[in-house]
Hints:
The protein has helices at 6-14, 24-50, 69-92, 94-99, 101-105, 113-130, 135-160, 180-183, 204-222, 231-247, 265-284, 288-306, and strands spanning 255-258, 261-264. By secondary structure, it is mainly α.
Amino acid sequence: MSYPYLSDLLNALFETNLYIPIATFGGMVAIAIIVASTIAKKEVIRCENLGILPQTIPNSSPSIPTHQLVSGLTMVCAFSGIFGARLFHILEYPYEFLADPIAMIFSRQGLSIYGGLIVGAIGGAVFLRKRGIPLLSMLDAVAPAVALGYGIGRIGCQISGDGDWGKTANMALKPDWLPDWFWAQTYENNIAGVLIQSPGVYPTPLYEILMAMCIFIFLWSIRKTKYSQGYMFSMYLLLSGFARLLIEKIRINSEYHFLQMSFTQAEFISIVLIGAGLIGILKTTRSNAFSKIGISLVVVAALSACTKL
């Protein structure tokens, strides 16, 4: 069952008949922004105290603590990210856009997470550069918060049924110990207005929530270890790219075709992020342990990608 609006969820829980026109997806995105901003500020303060980030914004008068930039940085990344998410979705479905551009621009569905990440990161980088804040050090500090925010945002996708689900679930492959709802859902009353036949589709938002939370826990647990500038964000790129590449195997997305290969936009960007993350890890780590982990993940991801390309 899906609950596109807050009132749908409240009515189901308390058997009321309310009407509150607040979209659950938008509400969860707002919560994600607030939580991610709070966690990021906490880590930035720690980095200030350690001298990893400057205590105050360079050349600011009067002196302003660096962590006070986090709220502004969050909003810049959020708004530019929303623009990028819509832009990349349009690029993913160009023919549909040409057929009805207005409807696609203002649709309630259709946001590309990688478009949001890339354009949001560009917006944030410009914001930080203008204020003289070391970019890599700040990216390291906010990497766990980005993973957490993504996971919370995906809760909104799951609750509202915004169309980010996967292919028709193959129930014959489901392990007996796994609950049916974790393997297949029909998303009744979904905000996309799509009728899904039983047994349902793979609830990929659930899987992405779980993976994002695992990435957050891992990054948060290692943040106090000694690492070189850029390492934490490189690890985030590697893990998030690998997670999304796996999810793409059970999702339905528009495909590009090049040199007799077919791949989705997310698959292509995932592989690029995995490569960038691996290069960053190899350049910043002094321990072979994490390098071997990164190489192992890339090999698995490459083999996974080759099953479709």
